[in-house]
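ok so for the tutorial part 2 we go from a plain amino acid sequence to predicted structure tokens. step 1 is just haveing the sequence, like this:
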Amino acid sequence: MRIRQLQADTINRIAAGEVIERPASVVKELVENAIDAGARSIEVVSAGGGISLLRVSDDGDGMSRDELGMAVERHATSKLSDDDLLDIRTLGFRGEALPSIGSIAHLAIASRARGAAEAFGIVVDRGDKGETQPVALNAGTRIEVRDLFSATPARLKFLKSETAENRAIADVVKRLAMAHPEIEMTLTTGERRSFRFPRSSDGADGLLQRLGRIMGREFVDDALAVEGQRDGVRLRGFAGLPTLNRPDTMMQFLFVNGRPVRDRLLVGAVRGAYGDTLPRGRFPLLALFIDLDPQCVDVNVHPAKAEVRFRDPGAVRHLIVSGLRYALEGAGHRSSATGGAATLETLVRGQSTSAQPMARGDAARPPWPGGMPRRPGTHFGEDPQAPFDVVAAPSGDSTPANEPVAEVDLERPLGAARAQVHENYIIAQTSTSVVIVDQHAAHERLVYQRMKAALANGGVARQGLLIPEIVTIDADDAELVVAAADDLAALGLTVERFGTDAVMVREVPALLGQTDVRGLVLDLAAELREEGEGRLLQERLEAVCSRMACHGSVRSGRRLTGAEMNALLRDMEATPGSGQCNHGRPTYVELQLSDIEKLFARR
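step 2 — the prediction. this is what the tokens look like for a chain of 603 residues:
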């Protein structure tokens, strides 16, 4: 087949196919243009899922008459200095968005340059460019896109429902709003205003305020400030506590030089930073912003600029991991503030469901089983069956068995232990709340942290068994355990092969104390089989540490003394990450006294 030059409209449609995947792609390009134009207020309007209408209005610098005519030509841009593709300091720079949109839709642009006396407009209808004409406009730029994909109707078949497209548009605007809290942004969908984000103040407080409007109040309550700088790369933002997590990554927002990105390197760094603090299949909530010299990052590796490439990816990853871990360790024993609220909601829900409504005609039937007992012939208002003066006094010795709690203990973060219930839950009291601690989960995390610290300092102390224990297991599992003998030795567990289907255990970690050696070996074999060889050595060691710590922790069902319970609380307060167990579940919930009083209508 003979080589020929493509027609201009065909070239534009091909470019549109690369840049404009769906209506949300158009919104992204137009809002980024408004941000680059120095806008302080941006309004987005959509109808019909963005197919019927997309309108983006801003109060930015605007364009002159000559610039307006040039803006709809391919590869015309005001955002590159000296054609240097290694020095990209704006969000848009390719000069393809407007002509690509105009080639597949009806595009109308009205703009007034800052300080100019007149505004001008131009229309591009499915590739047919009109003349520049005077129009009425106060300031900035207004761009309307109607009948999107009307020149390429086949693309319409691949779009999702109107609701899904509206959701995608909202997601684009929210991400750009997070990166630019100094800009007011409004989205109107159909006849309904979806949201309006007013301008926020400069600094971390203003950023957190904007994040809270998008990510929710619970994120603000559990957000940890993240900061760091290394080799010219700056990291800032906020990350949620591990106990605040989701089953997907929809609440993970990553930005590079103000540009929202979905980069595998950054996502992997986040996963590595949270590591063993999250349950499997759960993801943290966070918004991280990376700022660096534009010449150290390539933003042109993807047509939609959704991915980037760093000159030194290792340094960026290390900065994210170290910054997040420092913030998480600084949180100490903190657990998600939503835990107590969820507990109280469960109590309220339980009360409401236990009260069954009376059926019609049952007005005389009391709402309690069997009715109120009363003597024959008596009526309400007469003397009750049991005299109240009898129950007004205690029936037994009501004095506490222990000494009064010191005021200083009540001011501690986790308070003073008051009781143990169901042989697993410690009830503690602070000056303003009640704390419920899962003793097994809490001690499991403490043992795990001690093992990790010992491992980092050269190895876990061992305790020799008076009589080595022989553990019979599957031959393949025995092979896995023996193959990992060196790693296990660093963790204080000494194993040797004993035949084809057994291993001999000579030493166990001293931290575990008296433990079920056979159960420990069987669990470790399962852990090694599940982890496989693909994970990094450090991650495998941490997984094995976690499994071993479970065997060395205080078991459910064990009675604790008051001193033991308080010692556990003090250790939790001094141990980073103790707000969640090794599996990412919370180790305690805190019920505020004010909320408890609301349950009993005392407030």
